[in-house]
Amino acid sequence: MPLNNEQRAALWDHHGKPVSGQRILSARPGTGKTTTLTSYCIDLVEHWHERHQPWQGIAMLSYTNVAKDEIEHKIRKLGKAEALLQNPHFVGTVDAFLNQYIFLPHGTRPMAFTGERPKLTGEPYQQWKNHWALDNTKPSSAYSTMWFDCYTIGLNGKPLRIDATPRPAKPKPVIAQPVTDANTAKIVATKRHVWSTGLALQADANYLAYQALLTSPALTSAIIRRFPVLIIDEAQDLTDIQHAIVDHLITAGLRHVVLVGDENQAIYEWNTARPELFTAKATAGPPWTSHALTASYRCSPAICTTLTALAGDGSQLAPAEDGKNRTYPAPVTVRPFAASDGTGELKAAIDELAATLSKTTPHDGNETNVKTLLILARGAEHARQLEAAYSGITATATKRTVWEDPLTRDFLRVLYLINISDQYAAVEAYETLLRKLGDHRSTADMRTAAKRALGIAEDEGAAYRIALFDDLKELEAALSKEPCSLISDCAAICTTALRAIPANRSARFEKDCAGFAADDKKEQDRLLSSLFGAREARHWIKHSSYSDVHVAFATAHASKGETHDAVLLVVKSRTLSCGCPQSAAMWNKILKHSMTECETKRIVYVALSRAAQNLMILAPAGSDECWRDLTREALL
After folding, report:
1. Looking at the DSSP assignment, which residues form a beta bridge with residue 288?
2. DSSP for 284-295, written as a single string
């Protein structure tokens, strides 16, 4: 589909040429942000070598892997400029970019680490485990290093608590203490002690990358010369440190920066995101130029007006003039349910939406005529309870998964990818496991060492690949005989003889997996799909009466970036206190809060905006009136 005038005006001049400079693009739900952004980059790269050196590239970044994957998919789908996905250009997450080009090669100095190259630890790399040697050598002024992964350092040099998940301890689990004036110095001392051994969290890596840039004008200049164009998607979710890195590069001479996002969909403040910094740039004036996309190709007229009313900021979201969503007729509805009969009302609401969808064409026009109905809840536990109630199964709380061997999870990722027949990703995951197993600096180093260990000549790439695929075929054969869904199921697969993994390490994986069947860890035994599955691994249920309607359950965070034919938002009468200046836990108050200040209200906005054709809100009787007021206001 060609770009509309609003999209063209955002990033192209009146001659149709892509603009440069510093641009902010505020894009509302379904307004074609990704299509606009990828088309812009394709136009930039078309004449790239006329203006830049062969070693210079575009850094096309996103805050999340989901958004990054969508950009890659769109580039391939458009069938143009696949050079964007190759050197010298970079398409990836902000974290991956900072790791590859700044933190890993240059982070040792701000860490006071005397080794060659630091390592990333903690989630999502591997679970942090306290080492007795670290505790024995820490300064007396520091906390125990068991709390290392619970804190990071903010832009001002002060610690932030980023994980308050209870940790196993006797007689009862314990959590990391909130940051106070009294313990700030202790937390910082702990962080610096562990850093000096070469270990850092991803959150630390951002801070340390910024410090590396601040203390090295040469490094700053090198990054600007290597990537003269910086484009960041989902920029509303950047942290203050990530914003500071962008500002530092601009001050040092980077002239072409584009930030794209939607401040109304900023839902990661709990993870230190600072959406107000994106908004501040949008209203700052020169050198920043700001544009907005407000014509939605996703949401129906009723949903657009509901979202406009919810935002309450004067901006209008409306169906695009050339969008088929203009013809979606269904109103936004609110259904109350009695606390004593929540399950019955849930099923009735799903049945009503499914009956409506069965008479319509799916929003994406898929050949199988499948319509998707997503049931959204505020939290993961609530979503699990709803799915259990609808499916007639027992809902159990998910416990924090504790690994005895830090690489067991990496091995299970390989098994999961084989299970879903994603061979390319399985190869990549297996090589990642082997790289970590041998403590290699890079995949190239790992391949060289693996060839040597397997007796393969350095230039025999084909023989190496054959050895790699032989291992994966062995695992695939084992999985065909012993299907694995839970962690504990995988113990039998760990006994498979593999060329690249020593038997003693496989034995450790086996022992670790088997441990999840024991009473003390049984509650941590999880489905592999819940450990690694993205949206495509979500459990879809065919509706019993309308087989062309598929139903699934999720949270707003998990569904961000998705579009579904219908959404059913299920809310409780009250939620956790929203934490904004007007702090409240009742929805009748939260829905009147400022969108820019209230993340809880923005989470509702994200949930409602996943719907294309039908939207329903299911609320407890007695607390449903505020939701009715919202939809009434939308109709005025």
Report:
1. 22
2. S-TTEEEEEE-E
DSSP state of 360: S
DSSP state of 397: P
CA angle 101, 223, 291 (to 5 degrees): 105
Distance between CA 227 and CA 91 in Å, rounded?
A: 12
Place of tokens 């005895």: 404
Q: Strands, DSSP E only, in 477-561?
A: 541-542, 549-555
Distance between CA atoms of 534 and 512, rounded to whole angstroms?
24
Using one digit for the tens of pLDDT, what is the confidence trace for 332-351? 999 998 866 678 899 999 99
The three-state secondary structure class of 566 is strand
For the entire predicted model, the pTM comes to 0.84
Alpha helix locations (H) across 28-103?
A: 33-46, 48-51, 65-78, 94-98
Q: Which of 195, 194, 198 is closest to 115 using CA atoms?
A: 198
Is residue 253 classed as helix, strand or coil in its secondary structure?
Answer: coil
Condensed to tens digits (0 to 9), the pLDDT of residues 543-563 reads: 999 999 999 999 998 898 899
Asked if 249 and 220 touch (Cβ cutoff 8 Å), the reply is yes
Helix ranges (H only) for 100-182 are: 104-106, 108-111, 132-137
Beta strands in 262-309 (DSSP E): 288-293, 295-296
Token pair listed for 613:
């054709």
Q: DSSP string of 83-122?
A: GGGSTT-EEEEHHHHHIIIIIHHH-HHHHT--SS--EE-B
Residue pair 331/634 in contact by the 8 Å Cβ criterion: no
Instruction: Spell out the residues 6+ positions from residue 423 whose beta carbon is closer than 8 angstroms to its own.
Output: 417, 472
